[in-house]
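Thread title: Can someone regenerate the structure for this chain?

I was given the following input by a collaborator and told the matching structure tokens would be attached. They weren't. Posting the sequence so someone can regenerate them.
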Amino acid sequence: MSRIGVFTCWCGENIARTVDVDEVTRQASALPGVVCAVNYKYMCSDPGQSMVRDKIASERLDGVVVASCSPA
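Best answer:
Regenerated them for you:
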């Protein structure tokens, strides 16, 4: 079975102003194959990217979904 991680960004308030990020995270965590679903205020930042790398290793993920904007 797949081990998928879902990483959703708040993008400060750009995304969070119109999307219920906590609810997206909750819904994603219930999907088949998803073993971790997390959100972070700035996923494109160095700490956000480190979190993704750390989760890939610690949760032994073989797939990821990153829902965020791209860094400029």
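The mean pLDDT is 92.
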